[in-house]
Amino acid sequence: MQENSVLEMRGIYKSFPGVKALQNIDFTLRQGEIHALMGENGAGKSTLIKVLTGVYTKDEGTVFVKGYDKALNIRSPQDAQNSGISTVYQEITLCNNLTVAENLYIGREKGAFTNWKKMNEGAAKILKELEIPAEPTAQLSSYSIAVQQMVAIARAVDMECKILILDEPTSSLDEKEVQKLFKLMRGLKAKGVGIIFVTHFLDQVYEVCDRITVLRDGQLVGEYEIKDLPKVELVSKMLGKALDGLSAVQRPAAFSHAVNEEPVYQAEGLSAATGIKPFNFSIYKGEVNGFAGLLGSGRSYSVRAIYGADRITSGKAKVNGKYVKITKPRDAMKQGISYLSEDRKHDGIIGDLSVRDNIIFALQVMKGFFKPFSKAQAQKFAEEYIKLLEIKTASADTPIKSLSGGNQ
What we know:
The protein is α/β, with parallel strands linked by helices. It is built from 13 helices and 13 strands. Helix 12 crosses helix 13 (about 375-390).
């Protein structure tokens, strides 16, 4: 290993049935650096991380970690943890039915008995240091996805790791929480921890990272110093296409609609049992509206109220100028309203079903389960959207849980 390296991966290969996920990948992480791992959905980022952390067994290649005289054979997440590798995955892997403190310390208890007072005091100290708005004795499920993400990060940080892997850690965080995380990352960097940062947010990469490694279609494109790779070139390398003139693209004109045009959807005094107070909202055909606010402001709950995913307590809704009754998701679906949740694993997919079944599921709900689509019809729908959205999967029969997060 190089003197300043904390991790070196050489010639890594990993294949799944019908898919070459990683082909001859080299990756080097220096001590005290934040290193971005970049690529499109299905580029191999999550697979490389899962090989490093023992979730997947590599087909070929070697892994060296500082402090060890020979290559490591990491066969499980516990092996990785024992080697000084801590990970916060894109999908939160904590236990909702346990307390915050139990999640911070699970798997690290020594002896037959747990010192609950000591554990809760230790958890309170960690939460305070990281400014995480959670109580040690509260059940984890009582907090938002964003707070759960911060708890997962706190758990990884508290394990005194040499290598910290953050896989899309900011996907559920607001700007204030992102800055807290960056402050934490910079503090760990100063202590000599090597951090692998996986994200789709380019601005965040250029704000906090030192180097970038780019993957595309399971292959290594290159490794670059952050100062030597402008954003446009990074996007070009990720896509494998020249993007001449991209920086010159002008901002589109402000959206406008006809004076007498009816909103395609309109909420009047809508509120829900989740604590959302009555609000008005409208959106016109061809318009994109954003819900913005800090954690706890009600962004997600407002959207869930529009979709009927939570119990509506007051208000009315109009679609194309006509009042409609939307009290459950099926009502919204019948009005042409779709919902893509921030919590994909819980609300967005059924992991054990195939890619095909997940693609047609909502359509089958609309049609009714006593009128099932033929296999040929289902296959046609699936193939159409796999091609349209460039979903990287071995086939439509592949269980969706085996796909990368972005492809799910």
